[in-house]
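Recap from last week: sequence in, structure out.
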Amino acid sequence: DRAPEGTDASRTDTIIVTSFLPAAGEVKMLSIPRDLWVSVPGYGENRINTAHFFAEVEQPRSGPQAAVNVVSQNFGLTLKYYARVRFDGFARIVDSMGGIRLDLEEPTLGYPAGSVRLNGEQALAFARERRGSDDFFRMAHGQMVIKAAIRQMLRPAGLIRLPAVAVAMAAAVDTNVPIWLWPRLGFTLLRANGEGIDARTINREMVTSWMTADGAQVLLSNWEAINPLLLEMFG
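Predicted structure tokens:
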């Protein structure tokens, strides 16, 4: 999310747990609602998206690992790596690709059904838009943009733009993924080719809307519904 200038003290606007399976050529993505009410290590009960903010305020550059920890603890997943993408950098990455094309099944957010091309700012707005919808639509839009970007970069025309995209990503992404793993991730994406990407969300049936004592509208987890999904996707 937006942070004060010169800092990364912000909430995680979007959280996506991603698994790469090189041998199978599969990529699995699970979007987690940012308003999910969970136990934040060291801070008690709060929205899941606050873990990054609290950590950055206390110790700069510790936010990504704090976000990893809060997801790991609450979802029972073993997560080793993270990639933090800043909003402004996301727009620049899309622009370095020459924009992205989305295939819309129905009119959405003022765009007609069919093929539309978005520049970086438009793609960011599309992924973040919540007016007239909610965070569940928003998560689906975010995944739509990511999958479209992956498909586009794997085409011959997209590969030509790789140097420019690499420069934009270097400025926009913080990650602890070791460089020796990058070829395996790229190979997995190449094998998945967009069609082998299993993208899902924690949906409305898996949560319960609830209001805190302070009047904040949040989401409570229905683990009986969430756990089978976690088992199916991540084992």
